[in-house]
Amino acid sequence: MKAIAVYPAGRRVELIDHPEPSFESPSEVKLRMLEVGICGTDKEIVAFEYGTPPAGFDYLIIGHESAGEVVEAGPESGLKPGDLVVPSVRRPCSHPECIACPAERQDFCYSGEFTERGIKQHHGYMAEYVVEDARFLNRVAAPLRPYAVLVEPLTIAEKAIEQVWDVQNRLPWKRPQAAAGNLGAGHQAIVLGAGPVGLLGAMALRVAGFDVCVYSRHTEGDGRTEIVRAIGAEFVDAQQVAVEEMVSRFGHTLDLVYEAVGASSLAFEFLKALGPNGVFIFTGVPGRKAPVSVDTDHLMREMVLKNQLVFGTVNAPRSSFEAAIRDIGVFAEKWPEALSRIITNRIPMDRALEPLSGTVHGIKNVVAIA
Q1: What predicted TM-score, i.e. pTM, was given to this entire model?
Q2: pLDDT per residue over 8-67, tens digit each?
Q3: Phi-psi region of 84 (alpha: psi -120 to 50; beta: other; left: phi over 0)
Q4: CA dihedral 279, 284, 233, 171 (to 10 degrees)
Q5: Could you give the CA distance from residue 290 to residue 35 in angstroms, rounded to a whole number?
Q6: Which residues, at least 6 apart from 100, have a Cβ–Cβ distance to it below 8 Å?
Q7: Taking every pair of C-alpha atoms in the chain, what is the biggest distance, in angstroms?
Protein backbone atom coordinates (compact mmCIF):
# COMPACT_ATOMS: atom_id res chain seq x y z
CA MET A 1 0.00 0.00 0.00
CA LYS A 2 1.01 3.64 -0.37
CA ALA A 3 2.13 5.71 2.61
CA ILE A 4 3.98 8.97 3.32
CA ALA A 5 7.12 8.38 5.38
CA VAL A 6 10.02 10.36 6.76
CA TYR A 7 13.55 8.91 6.96
CA PRO A 8 15.18 10.93 9.78
CA ALA A 9 18.70 9.55 9.31
CA GLY A 10 18.63 10.06 5.55
CA ARG A 11 16.69 13.34 5.83
CA ARG A 12 14.16 12.25 3.19
CA VAL A 13 10.38 12.37 2.92
CA GLU A 14 8.81 10.04 0.37
CA LEU A 15 5.68 8.36 -0.91
CA ILE A 16 6.58 4.71 -0.25
CA ASP A 17 5.24 1.19 -0.59
CA HIS A 18 4.58 -0.27 2.85
CA PRO A 19 3.19 -3.73 3.67
CA GLU A 20 -0.59 -3.68 3.98
CA PRO A 21 -1.52 -4.57 7.58
CA SER A 22 -3.93 -7.23 8.81
CA PHE A 23 -5.35 -7.52 12.30
CA GLU A 24 -4.24 -10.24 14.68
CA SER A 25 -6.42 -9.60 17.73
CA PRO A 26 -10.22 -10.02 18.03
CA SER A 27 -10.42 -6.45 19.36
CA GLU A 28 -8.64 -4.95 16.34
CA VAL A 29 -10.08 -3.49 13.17
CA LYS A 30 -8.69 -2.66 9.76
CA LEU A 31 -9.31 0.88 8.57
CA ARG A 32 -9.35 2.36 5.12
CA MET A 33 -7.98 5.80 5.81
CA LEU A 34 -10.10 8.57 4.35
CA GLU A 35 -8.40 11.82 5.29
CA VAL A 36 -5.38 12.94 7.26
CA GLY A 37 -4.92 16.52 8.39
CA ILE A 38 -1.57 18.31 8.20
CA CYS A 39 -0.51 20.40 11.17
CA GLY A 40 2.60 22.13 12.47
CA THR A 41 3.80 18.94 14.12
CA ASP A 42 3.86 17.15 10.75
CA LYS A 43 5.79 20.00 9.15
CA GLU A 44 8.34 19.93 11.97
CA ILE A 45 8.76 16.18 11.58
CA VAL A 46 9.38 16.43 7.83
CA ALA A 47 11.86 19.22 8.62
CA PHE A 48 13.65 16.59 10.75
CA GLU A 49 13.24 18.50 14.00
CA TYR A 50 11.91 15.35 15.69
CA GLY A 51 9.97 12.17 14.90
CA THR A 52 11.12 8.68 15.86
CA PRO A 53 10.56 5.55 13.73
CA PRO A 54 9.25 2.34 15.33
CA ALA A 55 11.77 -0.29 16.40
CA GLY A 56 13.15 -2.11 13.38
CA PHE A 57 12.32 0.65 10.88
CA ASP A 58 14.43 3.43 9.47
CA TYR A 59 11.31 5.40 8.52
CA LEU A 60 8.21 6.74 10.24
CA ILE A 61 4.81 6.91 8.53
CA ILE A 62 3.51 10.31 9.55
CA GLY A 63 0.01 11.69 10.20
CA HIS A 64 -1.99 11.79 13.42
CA GLU A 65 -5.14 13.87 12.64
CA SER A 66 -7.30 11.41 10.76
CA ALA A 67 -10.60 9.80 9.88
CA GLY A 68 -11.08 6.27 8.61
CA GLU A 69 -13.68 3.72 7.63
CA VAL A 70 -13.78 0.21 9.11
CA VAL A 71 -13.30 -2.43 6.39
CA GLU A 72 -12.74 -5.46 8.63
CA ALA A 73 -13.72 -5.80 12.27
CA GLY A 74 -12.63 -8.29 14.90
CA PRO A 75 -15.46 -10.05 16.78
CA GLU A 76 -14.60 -8.28 20.03
CA SER A 77 -14.14 -4.81 18.55
CA GLY A 78 -17.72 -3.61 18.88
CA LEU A 79 -17.42 -2.10 15.41
CA LYS A 80 -18.58 -3.16 11.96
CA PRO A 81 -17.56 -2.54 8.36
CA GLY A 82 -18.69 0.87 7.19
CA ASP A 83 -18.35 2.55 10.58
CA LEU A 84 -16.71 5.98 10.47
CA VAL A 85 -14.07 6.40 13.19
CA VAL A 86 -11.48 8.87 14.40
CA PRO A 87 -8.39 7.32 16.01
CA SER A 88 -6.61 8.80 19.00
CA VAL A 89 -2.87 9.44 18.92
CA ARG A 90 -1.06 8.45 22.11
CA ARG A 91 -0.55 4.89 23.34
CA PRO A 92 0.12 4.08 27.00
CA CYS A 93 3.52 3.31 28.42
CA SER A 94 4.28 0.09 30.29
CA HIS A 95 6.27 1.72 33.06
CA PRO A 96 5.32 0.05 36.36
CA GLU A 97 5.33 3.31 38.30
CA CYS A 98 3.07 5.26 35.91
CA ILE A 99 -0.38 5.59 37.48
CA ALA A 100 -1.93 7.50 34.56
CA CYS A 101 -1.53 5.05 31.67
CA PRO A 102 -3.23 2.05 33.34
CA ALA A 103 -6.16 4.39 34.06
CA GLU A 104 -6.43 5.16 30.30
CA ARG A 105 -5.11 8.66 30.87
CA GLN A 106 -1.92 8.36 28.84
CA ASP A 107 -2.35 12.06 28.08
CA PHE A 108 -0.98 12.53 31.62
CA CYS A 109 1.74 9.86 31.32
CA TYR A 110 4.32 10.18 34.10
CA SER A 111 7.16 8.21 32.53
CA GLY A 112 7.30 9.86 29.12
CA GLU A 113 7.69 6.39 27.61
CA PHE A 114 4.39 6.55 25.71
CA THR A 115 4.34 6.15 21.93
CA GLU A 116 2.39 8.34 19.51
CA ARG A 117 1.08 7.40 16.11
CA GLY A 118 2.84 9.33 13.40
CA ILE A 119 5.14 11.07 15.87
CA LYS A 120 7.02 8.81 18.26
CA GLN A 121 7.93 5.15 17.72
CA HIS A 122 4.61 4.21 16.10
CA HIS A 123 3.59 4.52 12.45
CA GLY A 124 0.89 7.08 11.77
CA TYR A 125 -2.20 7.31 9.62
CA MET A 126 -1.00 8.78 6.32
CA ALA A 127 -1.36 5.40 4.65
CA GLU A 128 -4.04 3.63 2.66
CA TYR A 129 -4.80 1.13 5.45
CA VAL A 130 -4.21 0.97 9.19
CA VAL A 131 -4.88 -1.66 11.85
CA GLU A 132 -5.86 -0.40 15.28
CA ASP A 133 -7.32 -1.72 18.51
CA ALA A 134 -10.92 -0.60 18.94
CA ARG A 135 -10.23 0.93 22.35
CA PHE A 136 -8.32 3.69 20.58
CA LEU A 137 -11.08 4.44 18.07
CA ASN A 138 -13.97 6.86 18.39
CA ARG A 139 -17.11 6.33 16.34
CA VAL A 140 -18.48 9.30 14.38
CA ALA A 141 -21.94 9.59 12.86
CA ALA A 142 -21.91 9.31 9.06
CA PRO A 143 -23.38 12.82 8.43
CA LEU A 144 -20.25 14.30 10.06
CA ARG A 145 -17.97 12.68 7.49
CA PRO A 146 -16.95 16.06 5.89
CA TYR A 147 -15.66 17.34 9.24
CA ALA A 148 -14.41 14.17 10.97
CA VAL A 149 -10.75 14.96 10.31
CA LEU A 150 -11.15 18.07 12.51
CA VAL A 151 -12.07 16.06 15.59
CA GLU A 152 -8.51 15.41 16.78
CA PRO A 153 -7.36 19.07 16.68
CA LEU A 154 -10.60 20.05 18.43
CA THR A 155 -9.78 17.67 21.30
CA ILE A 156 -7.05 20.10 22.34
CA ALA A 157 -9.67 22.71 23.19
CA GLU A 158 -12.08 20.16 24.64
CA LYS A 159 -9.51 18.83 27.09
CA ALA A 160 -8.59 22.38 28.09
CA ILE A 161 -12.21 23.35 28.69
CA GLU A 162 -12.80 20.19 30.74
CA GLN A 163 -9.88 21.18 32.95
CA VAL A 164 -11.19 24.73 33.27
CA TRP A 165 -14.50 23.47 34.63
CA ASP A 166 -12.75 21.04 37.00
CA VAL A 167 -10.42 23.66 38.44
CA GLN A 168 -12.86 26.58 38.55
CA ASN A 169 -15.31 24.52 40.57
CA ARG A 170 -13.04 25.37 43.50
CA LEU A 171 -14.57 28.86 43.59
CA PRO A 172 -17.79 30.71 42.73
CA TRP A 173 -17.16 31.28 39.02
CA LYS A 174 -20.40 30.52 37.21
CA ARG A 175 -22.38 33.66 36.44
CA PRO A 176 -26.07 33.86 37.45
CA GLN A 177 -27.13 33.87 33.78
CA ALA A 178 -25.21 30.65 33.01
CA ALA A 179 -27.47 27.67 32.43
CA ALA A 180 -26.48 24.03 32.12
CA GLY A 181 -24.27 23.56 29.07
CA ASN A 182 -23.70 27.31 28.92
CA LEU A 183 -21.30 27.67 31.82
CA GLY A 184 -19.15 30.32 30.15
CA ALA A 185 -21.99 32.83 29.86
CA GLY A 186 -20.94 36.26 31.02
CA HIS A 187 -17.23 35.45 30.83
CA GLN A 188 -14.77 37.06 28.40
CA ALA A 189 -12.28 34.83 26.57
CA ILE A 190 -9.56 35.74 24.12
CA VAL A 191 -8.04 33.28 21.67
CA LEU A 192 -4.49 33.93 20.49
CA GLY A 193 -4.10 32.66 16.93
CA ALA A 194 -6.54 31.83 14.14
CA GLY A 195 -5.10 28.57 12.91
CA PRO A 196 -7.22 25.41 13.10
CA VAL A 197 -6.60 24.94 16.84
CA GLY A 198 -7.47 28.56 17.53
CA LEU A 199 -10.59 28.65 15.34
CA LEU A 200 -11.91 25.34 16.66
CA GLY A 201 -11.15 26.50 20.20
CA ALA A 202 -13.06 29.72 19.56
CA MET A 203 -16.04 27.69 18.34
CA ALA A 204 -15.93 25.47 21.42
CA LEU A 205 -15.75 28.49 23.71
CA ARG A 206 -18.70 30.12 21.92
CA VAL A 207 -20.76 26.95 22.32
CA ALA A 208 -19.83 27.00 26.02
CA GLY A 209 -21.27 30.52 26.26
CA PHE A 210 -18.13 32.69 26.37
CA ASP A 211 -17.85 36.07 24.72
CA VAL A 212 -14.87 35.47 22.44
CA CYS A 213 -12.28 37.69 20.80
CA VAL A 214 -9.70 36.20 18.41
CA TYR A 215 -6.40 38.03 18.11
CA SER A 216 -4.43 37.06 15.01
CA ARG A 217 -2.90 38.36 11.81
CA HIS A 218 -5.36 38.99 9.03
CA THR A 219 -4.52 37.68 5.57
CA GLU A 220 -6.75 38.97 2.81
CA GLY A 221 -8.95 36.27 1.31
CA ASP A 222 -8.03 33.35 3.56
CA GLY A 223 -11.41 33.38 5.32
CA ARG A 224 -10.26 33.48 8.95
CA THR A 225 -11.88 36.82 9.71
CA GLU A 226 -15.17 35.71 8.16
CA ILE A 227 -15.15 32.44 10.12
CA VAL A 228 -14.63 34.27 13.40
CA ARG A 229 -17.41 36.75 12.71
CA ALA A 230 -19.77 34.01 11.54
CA ILE A 231 -19.61 32.32 14.95
CA GLY A 232 -20.44 35.57 16.76
CA ALA A 233 -16.90 36.33 17.89
CA GLU A 234 -14.73 39.40 17.34
CA PHE A 235 -11.63 39.33 15.16
CA VAL A 236 -8.79 41.76 15.95
CA ASP A 237 -5.98 42.07 13.42
CA ALA A 238 -2.62 41.75 15.16
CA GLN A 239 -1.00 43.76 12.36
CA GLN A 240 -3.27 46.73 13.07
CA VAL A 241 -3.65 46.55 16.85
CA ALA A 242 -0.55 46.18 19.01
CA VAL A 243 -0.40 43.78 21.94
CA GLU A 244 0.00 46.70 24.36
CA GLU A 245 -3.21 48.26 23.02
CA MET A 246 -5.08 44.99 23.50
CA VAL A 247 -3.80 44.60 27.03
CA SER A 248 -4.81 48.19 27.80
CA ARG A 249 -8.24 47.61 26.25
CA PHE A 250 -9.03 44.62 28.41
CA GLY A 251 -7.28 46.00 31.47
CA HIS A 252 -7.29 43.18 33.99
CA THR A 253 -10.66 41.71 33.09
CA LEU A 254 -10.06 38.62 30.98
CA ASP A 255 -11.57 35.50 32.44
CA LEU A 256 -9.81 33.11 30.07
CA VAL A 257 -6.96 33.24 27.56
CA TYR A 258 -6.62 30.34 25.12
CA GLU A 259 -3.17 30.43 23.54
CA ALA A 260 -3.01 28.67 20.16
CA VAL A 261 -0.15 30.37 18.37
CA GLY A 262 3.07 29.06 19.94
CA ALA A 263 4.56 32.54 20.47
CA SER A 264 5.78 32.84 24.04
CA SER A 265 6.47 36.60 23.98
CA LEU A 266 2.91 37.31 22.84
CA ALA A 267 1.46 34.92 25.40
CA PHE A 268 3.28 36.40 28.35
CA GLU A 269 2.24 39.90 27.32
CA PHE A 270 -1.40 38.79 27.45
CA LEU A 271 -0.93 37.34 30.92
CA LYS A 272 -0.99 40.96 32.05
CA ALA A 273 -4.63 41.25 30.99
CA LEU A 274 -5.82 38.24 32.99
CA GLY A 275 -8.39 39.18 35.60
CA PRO A 276 -9.15 37.93 39.12
CA ASN A 277 -9.62 34.14 39.21
CA GLY A 278 -8.70 34.01 35.51
CA VAL A 279 -7.33 31.03 33.62
CA PHE A 280 -4.54 31.05 31.03
CA ILE A 281 -4.22 27.96 28.80
CA PHE A 282 -1.05 27.15 26.87
CA THR A 283 -1.46 24.80 23.89
CA GLY A 284 1.42 25.90 21.64
CA VAL A 285 5.00 24.64 21.72
CA PRO A 286 7.32 27.48 20.68
CA GLY A 287 10.50 26.80 18.78
CA ARG A 288 13.82 27.56 20.41
CA LYS A 289 14.49 31.23 19.82
CA ALA A 290 16.30 34.05 21.57
CA PRO A 291 15.29 34.63 25.21
CA VAL A 292 12.47 37.09 25.84
CA SER A 293 12.28 39.61 28.66
CA VAL A 294 9.47 38.94 31.15
CA ASP A 295 8.55 40.95 34.24
CA THR A 296 8.42 37.90 36.50
CA ASP A 297 7.81 39.91 39.67
CA HIS A 298 4.65 41.44 38.20
CA LEU A 299 3.33 38.11 36.89
CA MET A 300 4.00 36.29 40.15
CA ARG A 301 2.40 39.05 42.21
CA GLU A 302 -0.72 39.10 40.01
CA MET A 303 -1.08 35.33 40.02
CA VAL A 304 -0.87 35.17 43.81
CA LEU A 305 -3.05 38.16 44.65
CA LYS A 306 -5.69 37.36 42.01
CA ASN A 307 -5.86 33.58 42.39
CA GLN A 308 -4.92 33.12 38.75
CA LEU A 309 -4.27 29.79 37.10
CA VAL A 310 -1.89 28.95 34.24
CA PHE A 311 -1.71 25.45 32.77
CA GLY A 312 -0.49 23.66 29.67
CA THR A 313 -2.32 20.88 27.89
CA VAL A 314 -1.31 18.25 25.36
CA ASN A 315 -2.91 15.15 23.87
CA ALA A 316 -6.43 14.11 24.93
CA PRO A 317 -8.39 11.27 26.55
CA ARG A 318 -11.48 9.52 25.21
CA SER A 319 -13.78 11.98 27.01
CA SER A 320 -12.28 14.83 24.98
CA PHE A 321 -12.79 12.92 21.72
CA GLU A 322 -16.42 12.32 22.69
CA ALA A 323 -16.85 16.01 23.50
CA ALA A 324 -15.19 16.99 20.20
CA ILE A 325 -17.47 14.70 18.17
CA ARG A 326 -20.48 16.14 19.97
CA ASP A 327 -19.37 19.72 19.38
CA ILE A 328 -18.47 19.13 15.72
CA GLY A 329 -22.13 18.17 15.35
CA VAL A 330 -23.16 21.40 17.07
CA PHE A 331 -20.81 23.45 14.88
CA ALA A 332 -22.15 21.76 11.74
CA GLU A 333 -25.70 22.68 12.74
CA LYS A 334 -24.98 26.26 13.86
CA TRP A 335 -22.21 27.31 11.48
CA PRO A 336 -21.92 24.80 8.60
CA GLU A 337 -20.26 27.20 6.16
CA ALA A 338 -17.76 28.49 8.73
CA LEU A 339 -16.84 24.96 9.77
CA SER A 340 -16.37 23.88 6.16
CA ARG A 341 -14.08 26.84 5.46
CA ILE A 342 -11.55 25.68 8.04
CA ILE A 343 -10.52 22.97 5.58
CA THR A 344 -8.90 25.00 2.81
CA ASN A 345 -7.61 22.24 0.54
CA ARG A 346 -8.12 18.51 0.09
CA ILE A 347 -5.02 17.23 -1.66
CA PRO A 348 -4.47 13.78 -3.18
CA MET A 349 -1.91 11.52 -1.58
CA ASP A 350 0.53 11.68 -4.47
CA ARG A 351 0.81 15.44 -3.88
CA ALA A 352 1.05 15.30 -0.07
CA LEU A 353 4.63 16.56 -0.05
CA GLU A 354 3.45 19.95 -1.31
CA PRO A 355 1.47 21.01 1.79
CA LEU A 356 3.98 19.24 4.05
CA SER A 357 6.75 21.42 2.64
CA GLY A 358 4.69 24.57 3.06
CA THR A 359 4.19 25.34 -0.64
CA VAL A 360 0.39 25.04 -0.28
CA HIS A 361 -1.09 27.57 2.09
CA GLY A 362 -4.41 27.78 3.88
CA ILE A 363 -6.02 27.25 7.26
CA LYS A 364 -6.13 23.45 7.26
CA ASN A 365 -4.78 21.29 4.46
CA VAL A 366 -5.99 17.71 4.34
CA VAL A 367 -4.59 14.73 2.47
CA ALA A 368 -7.47 12.88 0.84
CA ILE A 369 -6.47 9.22 0.78
CA ALA A 370 -9.76 7.61 -0.25
Answers
A1: 0.96
A2: 999 999 999 999 999 889 999 999 999 999 999 999 999 999 999 999 999 999 999 999
A3: beta
A4: -10
A5: 37
A6: 106, 107, 108, 109, 110
A7: 60
